[in-house]
Design a protein that fits this description.
By secondary structure, the chain is of the alpha+beta class. It has 3 helices and 6 strands.
């Protein structure tokens, strides 16, 4: 039997969040998976191993007060980039946009690095003298 493609794996991964279906992650995550969450700044929490990554993603998927919305997915071989919006309320400011850099090997997710836009104050280059 052929292994699922990177596109197949990432499609199932995203749909698990959209459908709030934590069980859908079963069979998608490699034993040696490494995941870096978007928080806490500046580096995000790091989760190592299938069970740790599975528990983190399942907890997000179970939370029906939030909504994950994939905006764009690009796949190149074993790599995928997912641009997304994560909604945690009804107001216009109750969301954050971000990106996950994914690595799928042998039909399983082995790396997921999450980055997001921040709601905090980040000085622009012109304000710091770094604009050249």
């Amino acid at each position: 039997m052929a292994l699922p493609t990177t596109t197949d794996v990432i499609t199932r991964f995203n749909q698990a969040f959209v459908d709030h279906d934590p069980a859908a992650f079963t069979g998608l995550i490699g034993d040696d998976c490494v995941m870096e969450a978007v928080q806490p700044a500046p580096d995000g929490a790091r989760y190592e191993g299938r069970e740790a990554c599975l528990a983190f993603w399942q907890a997000i998927a179970e939370d029906r007060t939030t909504q994950f919305e994939p905006e764009d997915v690009q796949v190149a071989g074993e790599r995928a980039t997912i641009r997304w919006r994560y909604r945690f309320g009804d107001g216009p400011a109750d969301s954050v946009r971000g990106v996950n850099l994914m690595h799928v090997r042998d039909g399983l997710i082995v790396e997921a690095l999450g980055y997001s836009k921040t709601a905090g104050e980040v000085p622009l280059a012109a304000e710091t003298g770094l604009d050249g």
